[in-house]
Specification:
globular; alpha/beta; four-stranded antiparallel beta sheet; 17 helices; disordered C terminus
Amino acid sequence: MTEPLFFFPTHLDPESERPLYRQIYDLVRDAILDGRVTRGQRLASTRALAEELGVSRNTVLEAFDQLIAEGYLTSRVGAGTFVAEELPEELLAVTSAGQSREAGSSPAVSSRGEVFRRWSKTARTRADGAFAVGRPALDRFPWKTWSRLSRRVHREIAPERLDYGDPMGFRPLREALARYLGSVRGLDCTAEQIVVVRGSQQGLDLAARALLDEGDRAWIEDPGYLGARAALEGAGARLVAVPVDGEGLSVAEGRRLGRGARLAYVTPSHQYPLGVTLSLGRRFELLEWARRNDAWLIEDDYDSEYRFAGRPLAPLAALDGGRNVVYIGTLSKALFPALRIGYMVVPRGLVDLFAGLRYTSDRQAGFIEQALVTEFLTGGYFGRHVRRMRTLYRHRQEVLADALGERLPEVIELRLASTGLHAVGELARGWDDCEAAERADLAGVNVRPLSAYCLERRMPPALLFGFAGFPDRELVRGVDRLSGALGKAPSDRPSS
């Protein structure tokens, strides 16, 4: 048997933020990787090492346990602890036959998996900085009220609430949502029809999986919401890009381009990203198409709370009579994105289907968050917050428009939004919106090119500006940076 190696790290720092066990782990691992400790070498006992270092034996055991778990050390009962003969880095780089393989190679994934891989870059898009789209006014959220309600919920929680719950969601929240939708959106539904989900994106994913088979055709707005495109592609749908005009999605073009479609995805209250409202005539036309063709409609009502003038038109689900429309809403825009609570209203015939699908996806949303939102809704705090934010967002859009009009009048013309958290800024002739967005990004400004939302259609160059989530000074500062970024003439590339 080889002589034990009494390895004595001498660089332990009791004042360091790194725990002592982690310092021992790092020193031993580094010694193994750089060859100062040979493979198969037996180490000193944990008791001896602890005495030498002046630490508890448990501290050394914790470090060694981690090294054993990761494959750097092996432990043999009655013999001691040894450096592994094969290190983890080598095992990862060698096939079962012992032949090296290309870095990054792995077993093949499904064709649907490749769809998600293509969307990974979009999913990691930077979301910070003016003018990030979709961000509400986090600086004006009533955190003190929320904290007080949170303390109450935690104080009064019953033990049985900590067990598994109804996959459809917390019953009191579903009842509160049904009352809210009936009074504010004119949507006649019951708590039984409401499914609580972790944000509208999960709702889109569940609806696409439930309603589509592989290869089914699905209408999608062009330009349109990228998250919906990802959910439909992920469900195996063949997308039919239907153009949007001043009245919203063109049903006539949808009929021409996408015969036999099983589903249409629409944002009728505030088309994303252009901001137009689906006209009442188009709404009835779309509903008639769905009924005649035995097709489904997914209605994404993502920010209708923030309408700055007049009352919104009735949602498709309110006009449908509970037959063809799956309605999706979210609290990410009305409250805050990290909450991850959205909801669906499904036709009665689909309740059992979505209960089963919800159960097999992630079982249920978190109870604490659902209970908190219930208190916020039923206590009247939600309505007051939305009314305050509606006034604030109208003001912030005006600040943005004034700043752009003063600093970039020859480059950008902001198309004022009547609803929501973002507006579209049309670029002057000769600009390419992707180039403009790249220049803005280098200046620390987050604007999105309209062309990124187009599937087949070519649109005049434009940028999306989120304005709701930024105080006046940040909006003005962002415009100043954008002015510096777009001060030079555009390149000679053709506009999008």
